[in-house]
Each structure stands twice: as C-alpha cells, then as structure tokens.
C-alpha cells in the first residue's frame, strides 16, 4: 500500500508545481493577451502525441475521435488562476465556432476529476464546453508542458498548427478568424 501512495504523492506535487508555474508566469492572472499575440505557430505542422482523456460519463476518447474537425485542445485545472480567467471566453468561443466544424476540448488535470470540474462549470455557467478529464495528468506529461493553461490548435488533418502558453481572450472576431484559418488542412499534393 505504501508503494502505491508514493506515485500519487509525486503526481500531486507535480500538479501543484504546474499550478505554481502557471500562476507565476504572468504578473496578473486576469490579464488576457490577444490570441494572435500569444500564438506560437508550429511549423512544420506536427502530429500530437497519442493521448486519451475521459468524458463526464467515463468514456475514453482520443484526438482521433475528432478526425476531420478543427480542434482547440486546452489543458487546464480549476486551481489555476489563468485557466479560470480564460474559461468563460473558451465557453463563448465553443458556441461561436461549432458551426464551422471546430471543437474546443478543455481537458482538466484536476486530481479529483469530475467533482471539481462539474462544480466549476455549474458555478461559472460553463454551458458549451464538454467536461473532459485527465486526473492523472497524462496529457500534460505527453505534451511535456511547462505550465497551464496551454492550448494547441489542431487542423482538420490532425496536425498541430499552433501552441499558446498562458491565458488568452478567445471570444473575439479576430480570434475566430485566426482559428478558422489555422484549422484548414494542408493542401493535398499531387
């Protein structure tokens, strides 16, 4: 039993460290950058690492389940100030870009899983985002994140086109136009 507790303690310490990095990365957790200023374009476009996460019902999903859609993959937690600051704009974004075949996937790394996320969604009236869970932090580990929130823009062919570390204002016309452009697949050759 003691052997099984050590990895959990190490994991919780790691998640706490990620939160510390996220909250100290910006002098004011509520200061939001514009998407175009914060975006780090990924060139050449790369395939994301194989990841999985759970839905609120416990079903396991992967990015392949969304093949053909543009994606905004956001890794976040309820204990992260910058994450909390950007969630309402991600919620508004999700409703605005759904008609364009773009999906927002907010994957929570909260160790307590669904209870923390459900409470947060209810309290903050998050209505357009799915509850996606990774309580072990495997997604953050697979992407080798330095902090959260971190978001990845993934095109319709499943390749990363952009990365954003920190919180941004997602629900602007400029952000929507930029996302629509970034999720276009590369032209087919030949």
Question: In brief, what are we looking at here?
Answer:
With 190 residues, the chain is α/β, with parallel strands linked by helices. The protein contains 6 helices and 10 strands.
Explain what this protein looks like in three dimensions:
- The protein is of the alpha/beta class and 190 residues long.
- The protein has helices spanning 2-24, 35-38, 81-97, 114-124, 138-142, 173-182, and strands spanning 33-34, 40-46, 52-55, 60-62, 70-76, 102-108, 132-133, 150-154, 160-165, 168-169.
- The strands form 2 sheets. The chain has an 8-stranded mixed beta sheet with strand order 2-9-8-5-6-7-3-4. A two-stranded parallel sheet has the order 1-10.
Features:
6 helices, two-stranded parallel sheet, 190 residues, globular, disordered N terminus, alpha/beta, Glutaredoxin
Distance between the termini: 59 Å
Q: Report the β-strand fraction as a percent range.
A: 15-25%
CATH C-level class: Alpha Beta
Mind describing the biggest β-sheet?
A: 8 strands, mixed
How many strand units?
Answer: 10
The overall pLDDT average reads 84
The Cα radius of gyration reads: 16 Å
Based on secondary structure, the structural category is alpha/beta
> CATH topology, which one?
Glutaredoxin
Shape: globular
Number of helices: 6
Summarize the amount of helix as a percent range.
25-40%
Low-confidence stretches: 1-32
């Amino acid at each position: 039993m003691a052997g099984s507790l050590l990895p959990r303690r190490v994991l919780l310490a790691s998640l706490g460290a990620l939160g510390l990095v996220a909250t100290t990365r910006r002098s004011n957790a509520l200061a939001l950058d514009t998407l175009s200023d914060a975006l780090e374009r990924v060139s050449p476009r790369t395939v994301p690492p194989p990841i999985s996460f759970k839905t609120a019902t416990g079903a396991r999903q992967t990015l392949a389940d969304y093949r053909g859609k543009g994606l905004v993959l956001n890794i976040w937690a309820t204990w992260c100030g910058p994450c909390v600051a950007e969630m309402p704009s991600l919620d508004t974004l999700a409703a605005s870009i759904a008609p364009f075949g773009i999906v927002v996937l907010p994957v929570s790394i909260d160790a307590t899983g669904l209870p923390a996320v459900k409470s947060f969604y209810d309290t903050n009236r998050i209505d357009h985002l799915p509850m996606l869970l990774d309580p072990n932090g495997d997604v953050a580990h697979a992407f080798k994140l330095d902090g959260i929130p971190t978001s990845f823009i993934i095109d319709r062919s499943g390749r990363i086109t952009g990365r954003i570390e920190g919180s941004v204002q997602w629900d602007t016309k400029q952000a929507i136009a930029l996302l629509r452009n970034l999720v276009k697949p590369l032209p087919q050759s030949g």
